[in-house]
Amino acid sequence: MSVRALIVDDSPTMRALISTLLSRDPDVEVIGTAHDAPMARQMIKELDPDVITLDIEMPHMNGLDFLEKIMKLRPMPVVMVSTLTQKGAEATVRALELGAVDCYGKPSGGMREILCTDDGTLAEIVKQAGRRRRRPVAVARPRPPEDFIGNGRMVAVGSSTGGVEALIQLLQGYPAACPPTVIVQHMPATFTPALAARLNGSGLPTVKEAEDGMPLRTGHVYLAPGGERHTLIGGSADNAYVRLVDASPVSGHRPSVDVLFRSAAQTLGERAVGAILTGMGADGAQGLLEMKKAGASTLAQDEASCVVYGMPKVAAQIGAADEIVSIDRMSQRILKLCSA
Length: 340
What we know:
Number of helices: 12
CATH architecture of the largest domain: 3-Layer(aba) Sandwich
Low-confidence stretches: none
Order of helices and strands: EHEHEHEHEHHEHEHEEEEHEHEHEH
Helix content: 25-40%
Radius of gyration: 20 Å
Oligomer: single chain
Strand content: 15-25%
Largest sheet: 7 strands, parallel
């Protein structure tokens, strides 16, 4: 059964382009387009789409305000289509926090260039979003422990679709003296600085966008920058640091969760904890298995709390995860494994 999509964008050109990109996939049906929030609201009532693509900058009501109303009144899968600018990135991170499933960087090239370079990415995001489960019911988030003392273990985390919400929840359970943590979240390069800033304000630890050579320190979380390089853990278990490496995509991604996890296995061994969170595809599953074989403790988010049960599902299927854990318990479990 095809996924039924409604396109919401104030630009006729973008509506036509998005429609063309989606219609290339036989499993996606574009059932309508709307140029603003009032028109979109009426079409949602009449057409009951499986998924919406939503622009942020629109007349009458911007996309963030409209998204917030959707999530309160009629929760449904929404994919944000945002400009690749700092302002657009900050708004997109806020949209993901509000409950949007994923984001797609609005291309700036000409129509011909865009049609040649998309390679089915937007259609795949929309399909996954349209087939996702309803948003999990909000749960009480645990308070960070005040007496946490680390045992020298470090943490590697991988996430994708639905990951912003999951990462915020995870870090809200972290104490100020949290174990050093490196995160790969699939996201365009222009969006990761805004995400690092948002995560930095979500809890007690210091969150930074990772830079080559940064030492891994207690109380710090390092977010892999999107773009042309992979993020690895280098050095040794007693002197670990961030490495940014130019290399081809792995598992279809750069940075890749598999690359991060494999470096954790090689550099840290049993002094590592790996956690794979919500996301489509399989990136990170094989790397998590390598961490487990190297003696690390490995966790995968459970199906019930995932936005898209893809990456954690593959990890569970191949036996890479020691434990299956809901996102509301993930920080507690990581901290217990890292506690003295």
